[in-house]
Amino acid sequence: MSSECLEIVSHSVDETIALGRAMGKQLQGGEVIAMVGTLGTGKTHFIKGIALGLEVADVDVVTSPTFTLINEYEGRLPLYHIDAYRLEKAEQLAALGFDEICCGSGVVVVEWADRVWPLMDDYKPISIHLEHRGESERALRIENLPGYVKLVSPPKVRKTLQKQPPRPKIKGAFF
Ligand SMILES: Nc1ncnc2c1ncn2[C@@H]1O[C@H](COP(=O)(O)OP(=O)(O)OP(=O)(O)O)[C@@H](O)[C@H]1O
Ligand SMILES: [Mg+2]
């Protein structure tokens, strides 16, 4: 695991999903991911991106688990999605088979992970903090990312592309 802390600003829902997707594509199974951030900071959208990267066929089904508390999506690797917001006690998570799925070969993502941190901590999770910066801006702080996951900030990519000079227009040339 890397001790680096990655700070990325997302300027839109699409950028948040793209970041999650980039992460999901590189996950190898066995990762536990802790999502921390207040209401509406984009935790579920980031997880939608992870699901896309894991090739979950229908990502519209990725919503915060309500009645079930834990959702399982079938993809290249199984993706388990837990929302700790509705848990009354951290022990409920243990009763849901949390330890078994964390020791399995899938990917486990927990929204509101700070509410069950003592249980999460054992698995040295990748942690993702999201903060509201404006109507469509969110600051993401990613820690404990495994070395095999490389993330490039979409805004930086976009800036690099924008800096390139326009192509010269040559009459009669074929591109
Ligand atoms: N850059 C952004 N990234 C993600 N969501 C954004 C962004 N800008 C605006 N939004 C909006 O913020 C909301 C994020 O919703 P989402 O369900 O992902 O949040 P959440 O953190 O999971 O909330 P909850 O704690 O209620 O589960 C959506 O309404 C989305 O349109
Ligand atoms: Mg959510």
Structural write-up:
- The protein is an alpha/beta fold and 175 residues long.
- The chain has a single domain (5-163), classed as Rossmann fold (3-Layer(aba) Sandwich).
- Helices cover 29% and strands 22% of the residues.
- It contains six helices and seven strands, in the order βαβαββααβαββα.
- The chain has helices spanning 13-26, 43-53, 91-95, 98-102, 117-121, 154-163; strands spanning 5-10, 32-36, 70-73, 79-83, 107-111, 126-132, 138-143.
- Strands 1-7-6-2-5-4-3 form a seven-stranded mixed beta sheet.
- Helix 1 crosses helix 2.
- The protein starts with a strand and ends in a 12-residue tail after the last helix.
- The mean pLDDT is 87.
- Bound molecules: adenosine-5'-triphosphate and magnesium ion.
Q: How are the strands ordered across the major sheet?
A: 1-7-6-2-5-4-3
Strand content: 15-25%
Gyration radius, in Å: 18 Å
Main sheet: strands, sense, barrel: 7 strands, mixed
Q: What fold name stands as the CATH topology? A: Rossmann fold
Just name the CATH architecture.
Answer: 3-Layer(aba) Sandwich
Name of the CATH class: Alpha Beta
Rounded to the nearest angstrom, the distance between the terminal CA atoms is: 44 Å
Helix content: 25-40%
SS summary, helix count:
6
Number of separate strands:
7
